[in-house]
Structures are given as C-alpha cells and as structure tokens.
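USER:
Before I trust my own judgement here, I would like a peer's view. Write it directly below this note and I will take it from there.

ASSISTANT:
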Amino acid sequence: MFPREAVLEPGGAHQLLLTAYLPEGRTEDVTDQARYESNNPDVVKVDPSGKAQAVRPGETAVIIRVATQALSTRFGVIAKPLRAFPEVLPRNFIDEHVFGKLRKFQILPSERSNDGEFLRRICLDLTGMLPPPSRVKEFVADKDPAKRDKLIEILLASPEYVDYWTFRFADFFRVGGGVRTPPGSDA
C-alpha cells in the first residue's frame, strides 16, 4: 500500500497504489482490483480507482480490501500550510508524538495554560473532581517552578485518582454489568 499516510490540502488528490507480493516471488499492481472506502468522506473521498480527494480539514482512514486481505492508510487534510512551525521543546515522549502530529497537520500548539486552568484540567482529568478553593489559592500563589509536576505526582498517589479510574475502567470493561438475582429468590 502506498502511501501508508499522506497529508493534503483541501482539493488536493493522491492516487493510492496497491502492490501484491505473490508466493512465487512476483509482484503485481492490483490497484484496480481493490475496493476503497473512506471512513469519513466529509474529509477524504476515494473513487473506485483508488484516487483519494481531500474535501475539508480533518483526519480519516481509507480501508482497502482486495481478495482476502484488508488494510488501511491514513489521510490528513490541512486547512492552510504554516510558513514556519515554531520550535517547541518536548518534556516527555508523549510530547514528542503530540508535537510531531501537530507539525504534520500544520496545527499551532496552544499557548501554555495559566495555573488556574492547569489546576482545573489536571484535577478533572486525574480525579474527576474540581479542586477545592483552598487548593486553588495555594497553587496559584505558589512560586515553585516544579509545582505542576509535584501536583501531578500528588494526584496520581491520591485515593481519588484510584477511585475515579477504577470507576472509568469498570464502566469501559462493563464490570458488574450483569443482571443480579437477589439472594433467596428462585430466579
């Protein structure tokens, strides 16, 4: 499958190419024998010949089926290319992936949040609760440059974190979702 992933501007197009590697060592172009389907035709449309046409900004996959095989390729459609992407220093491996994708899709990273926004977001993300007013005042007044990292460690070690994520994963995995029969019933 070529390309495995591509970025286009609205109105841009890219021809998908599909090569079969046969058991006897031959290769064959099977582009015209495949069936193509966009997961989101509002972002990228693909015709029966495998020509992908960018429609509007977004990201989607195109599923390709041929014989007994299925594979996919990813397309991103950017609104307007940036003249220069800012140099952003990652703090961890997750930042490297996030900034790489932002760069690929020509999306400017957001400005750093202020302390109040950060506190609200991290508390909701890790514990599912808003921070108490006393913690807000204390955090905003704190001048320690490492206060965000320290807060994350405190929240990750809290019983609220354990409770919240236990609930989230139990819901996700449908733990305890069966019908229960009351004790002593004949059902």
